[in-house]
Amino acid sequence: MSSARRGSAVRRRSPLRRLLVLVAVVLVVLLVALLLWYLLAGRLTEPEPGRPGEPGAAPPTSQPASCPDVMVLSVPGTWESNAADDPYAPTANPASLMLKVTSELQNRFPPGRAEVYTVPYVAQFSNPIAFPPDGQASYNVSRSEGAARANEVLTQRFTDCPLTSYVLAGFSQGAVIVGDLAAAIGAGAGPVPADRVLGVTLIADGRRDGVSAQQIGAPVDGVGAEVALGGLDVPGITMTGERRGGFGALADRTYSICAPGDLICAAPPQAMSLRNIPSSLGALAGAAGNPVHGSYASYVVDDSGTTATAWTTEWAAGLIDSAPTPAHS
């Protein structure tokens, strides 16, 4: 082949080569960007399994005078807390649903009888498909922080106060956190022994499976959004499905409140589908702000007109009233 022909062939191939190189570079950049997005959005982390006392060890006969008889642990929902909030006098969101429960309990019981502790955490849910980004912490980051803080305070309280009893309650994202905590305790892997937990109430639990907890209110179709989207793992949002094993030793004292039409706890398959991830993510990100999800202060759960928050308050108060009174030293 003459040099002229070879030069012509090289010139013809050069644009194609440049195009292939450009495509390869673009793909690498996109892959790196997706990887960074995935990592920076945050991975879901689970607290270390608890070790609630030595198996078979006899409990002490008394505990320090500073210890409460009962600790009420409350975890607020999305946008109802922040990491710097005061756990004994929360002000991050005065309209927080759980405040309607905890404030009333604080008014009824002295701190020595019932320590009412509201877990402070970032409590956000960034929409991963928002453009520009909404600037919020991802669900994974928020949920992991709430779980870690709840576990930490219970671990510390049980260490300091081995005879204290516990009442656990949460709403929305907080219900997922409390439900996971209750499942771990019920399986013997939580921060406190199951026999120290008087009861658990989950309002709008995103991991509700419809069978593991006792339903308060009218029967509700559907399952929690995390169950409907079980297996979805996108930047910042890991849907963990149902709680395998349920609530174990706490199954007989764990209650669920879910209003019909609330996509967080009663999602129909057509609303949350892995086959249509973008619309499902949009529905999930918006579900926390829908009117039904925000209605639990007025949602009636029985024939007497009792609302979800009033029921939770009276349930917790009844447990506190009947809880043991440990000796103090």
UniProtKB/TrEMBL annotation:
InterPro entries: AB_hydrolase_fold, Cutinase/axe
Gene3D superfamilies, per the entry: alpha/beta hydrolase
Pfam families referenced in this protein's UniProt entry, alphabetically: Cutinase
Record's keyword annotation contains Zinc-finger: no
Keywords, comma-separated and alphabetical: Disulfide bond, Hydrolase, Membrane, Serine esterase, Transmembrane, Transmembrane helix
Stretches that traverse the bilayer: 20-40
Family stated for the protein in its record: Belongs to the cutinase family.
Listed PANTHER family: CUTINASE 4, CUTINASE RV1984C-RELATED-RELATED
Protein's recorded name: Cutinase family protein
